[in-house]
Amino acid sequence: YLQQIPLSTFFPSR
Amino acid sequence: MFEAKFEDGGLFKKIVEAIKELVKNVNLEANGTGISLQAMDTSHVALVALQLNEKGFKKYRCEKSLTMGLSIENLQKILKCSGNDDQITLRTQDEEPTTLSFTFESKNRISEFQLNLMSLDQEQLGVPDTEYSSVVRMPSNEFTKICRELGNINEAIGIETSKEGIKFYVKGDIGEGQVSVKINDTEKPEERVECEVDEPVNLSFAVRYFNLFNKASALSSQVILSMSQDQPLVIEYIIEEMGSLKLYLAPKIND
Question: Could you report the per-residue pLDDT of B177-207, keeping only the tens digit for each?
Fold first, then answer.
């Protein structure tokens, strides 16, 4: 099963 | 005062066309170096990053950096009043503008419109400027075609890189399949396929975002896919002489 990861997991908030 | 004149207004229309289904409201940032935009889609899975350099404009002036909050839908309504061959000038007067002015100019007509600006509180992500372990350049129409074809079979698409080229694959309820695109160095730059693979990757993505990204293929005959294992991919369209449109997509990962 493939789960969609949100972008905020990879890129920090500015 | 801010003023930016596109010699080719059709280009600005193509950019808006390319992002209109990904993002609704955006902050357009202008400063001395040019115009930029960063916005995420509502599900926070995809990110649009546009950079237009000051040198690419026919005329550019920005004394003080400013943020212009726009509705893409409303922007498009105004752009519909311009011809594809018009020159388009964006302009603001005040230090804290409430409207953005548009001038559309052709041989025999000049139109002026004002778009009301909005104050948008948008989350900005710090996208690191990293090296990617696989970088693939290929014709944008070929990438569009593969996504459309494989998207019929399953909603997730796999991408695998190797020194030999790039492979797209799907596994769905009805069956499975794969498309391999071979490296070539043809004389026609728009048909070239190049793979720089330091480390091969094997990643999965939701193909429906790619199908939205592919609206940007009108901007460039080539697309650049930059990937590292278990990291978001970047799909970049170079906008000749002006800058680039980068579209980021977070991967799907095995649970």
Answer: 999 999 999 999 999 999 999 999 999 999 9
User: pLDDT band at B94, cuts 50/70/90?
Assistant: confident
| Residue B127 in contact with partner chain A when CB distance is under 8 A | yes
Q: Burial letters for B126-141: b for 16+ Cβ neighbours within 10 Å, e otherwise?
A: ebeeeebbbbbbbbbb
Q: Predicted confidence band at B31 (pLDDT cuts at 50, 70, 90)?
A: very high
As for the ipTM of the complex, it is 0.96
Taking an 8 Å cut-off on Cβ atoms, the answer to whether B231 and A10 are in contact is: yes
- Name every residue whose Cβ is closer than 8 Å to that of residue B173 and which is 6 or more positions away in sequence: B154
State the best of B29, B38, B44 to mutate against chain A, taking most chain A CBs within 10 Å. B44
| Pairwise CA distance, residues B33 & B179, whole Å | 41
- As a whole number, the mean pLDDT across chain B is 96
Report, as an integer, the average pLDDT of B34-62: 97
C-alpha count within 13 angstroms, C-beta hemisphere, residue B171: 5
Q: How far apart are CA B156 and CA B206, in angstroms?
A: 5
Q: Does B255 touch chain A (CB under 8 A)?
A: yes
What would the two tokens of residue B7 be?
A: 């010699």
How many interface pairs between A and B have CB atoms less than 8 angstroms apart? 56
